[in-house]
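Posting here for the record, re: 6-O-phosphono-beta-D-fructofuranose.
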Amino acid sequence: MSEGWYKSLMPSAIKKIGVLTGGGDAPGLNAVIRAVVKAGTNAGVEVVGLEDSFDGLLEFNRSRTLTPKDVTGILRRGGTILGTVNTGDPFVKPVETSEGPRQYADRCVEMFGRMRFGGLIVIGGDGTLSIAHRFAKLGIPIVGVPKTIDNDIVGTTNCFGFDTAVAFATEAIDRLHTTAEAHRRIMVVEVMGRYAGWIALYAGVGGGADAILIPEIPYDVERIASQIRSRDAWGAHFSIVVVAEGARPNDGGVSVVEEATRGRPERLGGAGHRVAAALEELTAKETRTVVLGHLQRGGSPTSFDRVLATRFGGRAVELLLQGECDKMVAFRPPDIVAVPLADVVGRQRLVPPDFDLVRTARALGVAFGD
Ligand code: F6P
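Prediction output follows.
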């Protein structure tokens, strides 16, 4: 199949599109699916939901047509009605199909044609969007929708899921404040975010943390200890320390619970416990650690995430029908724009160390450990 063959499809020729969700889930996935199904159907296009990411293209029985009735009531639901997989790069593995063994990518491209799709909407994080970009280069018309609670996708100020994760982490910090104060303890709260400190920064500021450790600013734990001692000296006998899972000391690396395997990144974990152990030793204060983990990915999306996800879904359908492919919808307030996937994938949007929220937090006395 020659590259770009799909460009011969007139926008009006698109009568059927697929939608899939890939990578780790994030609150708002269902809101995007709902928007795609409603906008697509109302434009006279059949919308088919592919199960378990691109695996939904492997067999005819791994997808289903979705009508507005099928998506009624899912706006507020976490998770994804389509299922998702987070098992790495499908391009590296041959697959067993009902028609014999095939190369994964060849099978997906072949089935895309046999299922008479005019395009795909791919909702995912950097890993899934990178795969989408590779399929786009193989000729599948694709529009990507950025998803991750980590908020680290280049080209968009917000991914849906981030606001919900921050709201949850902020509430958790609120709750920890009262118990920390009652027991005069240090509470260390570990949040997700991989190599980006967005969740830690926003939840830390939103929850009034005393120290915030983010991957972009390597820390010296003694500086956090001295912040805690000075709080003790003026009468605040408790402290809240928010630690991003990717935070690292200036003389060490990130805390890893599982090394990377082929096509699958390393799993982070343990950053909070490492900081807590050091602080307990340095300050002689009782210290506890709470790892918020996957709770940050669960539950109902906030109204902000529902609206953002809905805008992304509606715009993605528009772009696909206009033939604007190999692009990702992005939030550039106040607009939803399209950016080339090529400019986005394989990169990370990190917290600039001189970001205004970092400067303001410092001005308010929050320690970053540097
Ligand atoms: O990228 C989203 C994220 O939730 C990260 O914050 C976290 O490190 C990772 O996924 C966890 O992945 P898994 O669901 O595979 O444990």
